Structure formats: C-alpha cells, structure tokens
UniProtKB/TrEMBL annotation:
This is Glycosyl transferase family 1. It comes from Sulfuriferula nivalis. Keywords: Transferase. GO terms for molecular function: glycosyltransferase activity. Residues 15-157 form the Glycosyltransferase subfamily 4-like N-terminal domain. SUPFAM superfamilies: UDP-Glycosyltransferase/glycogen phosphorylase.
Length: 352
C-alpha cells in the first residue's frame, strides 16, 4: 500500500485553506512513503511551495469546469501520472475529474458547505472537513456510507509564541491588547460584526487593537464602516501576509467572527499557537472549541463578541488557561499524523 501513487487535483493556485490542506496532506503522505503528484491550473504560490518541498506537479489548462481544453489537459495529466487513486479538492475539481475519468477511482474533499451533489456523483467517496459539511452533503441525498469526516490539521511546530515580544515591538503593539483575525475580507467571514463590536469595546478597553489579516472584496466596505463608527484608529488591515505565524504569536486574543465556514484552518492555527480563542458556531469550529479551551459564540452576534472579548481582556489567568488548553487540543486532536492515517483508511476502503 505504501507504493500507492496519488494524484491530487485542485483548481486554484494560492495558498488559502484548501490549498494549504493539499500541501500539508502531500507532505504527510510523502512521509508515509506514498508517491504524490498534484495537478493545478497554473504556476503561483502553491506551485512554488510544492517545488520547495520537492512535490511533483503538472500544470493543466486553466478554464471553467466544462472548458474543453481544460478537460483535455486534465485527461492527459491523469494518463501521464497514471495514479492508483485521484483525490479531487473542492467542487470544480471533482466535477472535472468526473467528466474526464471513469477508470481511476476518485476520492473528493468537500471543503465548504455543499449546495448540490452533481460534482460528486462519479466519486467513490467524499471526505468532509466538518460534520456541518457532511450534513449539508447528505441532506441533499448523497449516500451517507460514501462520506466521512476528516478534520484538517496543522503542522503545530510552525506555531508558537516564542518570538512574541520581538514581533510586538516590531509592529508597535507593545502597549496594545491585540485581537486578531485571519480570514479573507468577504461577508461570510463576519469582520463587519467584529468592527461593530469594537465600537463598544473601546469604551472599556481603550488600548484594544483589532488586527485583520487577509484581503478581499470587502476591504473598502470595512474601512468605510470603521470610519463611520470612529474606530479606524483602533484597526489595522494588514492584507494578505506571509508572516501569519509571527502575527499570531504577537496576538493576545484570537477572534473568528465567521457567519459561515467549512473547516477554518486559521482558527486551528491560532489554537496551535497557544492563544485564547473566540469562535462562532459554524463549520468545524464547534469541534475544536468547548468550555474548557475557549469561548464559543453564535454567528452574527455583536453583543456576544463584546462579552467574550471583555471576559478575556479582563481576566489574564483565564486567557492563559484557555491558551494552554487550545494548544493541547490542536496538538492531539488535529495532528497531521491523524489526518494522514484517516485519509489512508479512506483510500484503502475505496480501493478495496
């Protein structure tokens, strides 16, 4: 089984949650002795990371899921790599693999809430990154026995608070209570509620600073809201960053105000760093967080954000307690080794 050749197919080239998942899973599978290969539509951040880690990849033709040249290119990639199993990531890739391939068995990973099952109809199994994602899939009629939940994982050694003081000095945060959030600036991530909560928090915690890490279409909208609420001086919008682990190390409280999530790898990274975390009841966050290791709140609830942040801001021992417990949870329940083992079990089941 260790001679297994796996072709991962993904339709994007950045290094967001799904792309980071592919990279991490490839590294885990290499460590197990599998022969891994990735098909992606063009060079970019992901291909650079694959090269850095000596993971083979093939560039397929970019285009929509029914673009004839894109499908032709993917078909050729499958023939050239000659995999024992294909692992498609997200809807587009699953749909394209289903269209061009009938000979090689295929596993797909659903990284977000599923709204229609057609892309998965030719897959032998669908891995879901959270119970919520699996529920959305099965409620649409997909056979439950052909699906399972495997949570994402993080390389926990990459995250710590060892260089905290130096980074806080570099960023000018020495005297601030830093509340950070790593997410794309889009409505589903809920930063609007964090900014609304900030307008109330500054009256009680005047040294608070909300740090939003990530970019997206809502940047101007969020900046305008911050100006309207007179909190622009308490916010830093840092955009997409390559030093997220450093910025997390310099954080006091991590807030994920998402309205909708699939898994939320950034939340797990915050836990692995050893931060006191506040997260909403969506995606896999309730699987990561409980009363012993953080604060779980309803989505789109400004008052709940205010209360949770205040509770942590005013209680340093509680922050430390949650931070330590969160790190233990990340290290034990969401380890890369467990993810690799569980994924291999799915491959074995599919291959018979």
């Amino acid at each position: 089984m260790f001679n297994l050749r796996v072709l991962h197919v993904i339709g994007s080239i950045g290094v967001g949650g799904a792309e980071k998942h592919v990279l991490d899973l490839c590294l885990q599978q290499q460590a197990l002795g599998l022969d891994v290969h990735v098909a992606l539509p063009s060079v970019g951040e992901l291909s650079a990371a694959l090269t850095q880690h000596h993971i083979a990849y093939t560039i397929t033709r970019a285009g929509g899921r029914w673009h004839p040249l894109a499908l032709w290119s993917l078909r050729n990639a499958i023939k050239e790599v000659h995999p024992d199993i294909i692992h498609a990531h997200m809807l587009k890739s699953a749909a394209m693999v289903g269209r061009v391939n009938r000979n090689v068995k295929c596993v797909a990973t659903a990284h977000n809430i599923v709204k229609h099952t057609n892309p998965f109809m030719h897959c032998q199994h669908v891995i879901c990154v959270s119970e919520m994602v699996r529920d959305s899939l099965c409620q649409l009629g997909y056979p439950q026995q052909k699906s399972s939940v495997i949570h994402n994982a993080v390389e926990t050694h990459e995250f710590s608070t060892n260089n905290r003081d130096a980074i806080r000095t570099k960023m000018g945060w020495q005297d601030s209570l830093v509340v950070s959030c790593v997410a794309r600036l889009v409505p589903a991530k809920g930063q609007i509620y964090a900014i609304q909560a900030l307008a109330k928090l500054i009256t009680v915690v005047p040294n608070i600073k909300l740090v939003l890490i990530g970019d997206g279409d809502d940047r101007d909208k969020l900046t305008q809201l911050a100006n309207e609420l007179n909190v622009i001086g308490y916010i830093e919008l840092l955009g997409a960053r390559a030093d997220v682990s450093d910025l997390l190390a310099a954080t006091d409280i991590y807030l994920q105000p998402s309205v909708k999530e699939g898994f939320c790898i950034s939340f797990l990274e915050a836990m692995a760093t050893g931060l006191a975390c506040v997260g909403t009841e969506t995606g896999a966050i309730p699987n990561m967080l409980n009363d012993a290791n953080g604060i779980l709140i309803p989505p789109a609830d400004v008052v709940a954000i205010v209360n949770a942040v205040l509770r942590l801001a005013q209680n340093q021992p509680l922050r430390n307690q949650y931070a330590q417990a969160a790190k233990i949870t990340a290290n034990t329940q969401f380890s890369p080794e467990k993810q690799a083992k569980d994924t291999m079990a799915v491959y074995q089941r599919v291959l018979g």
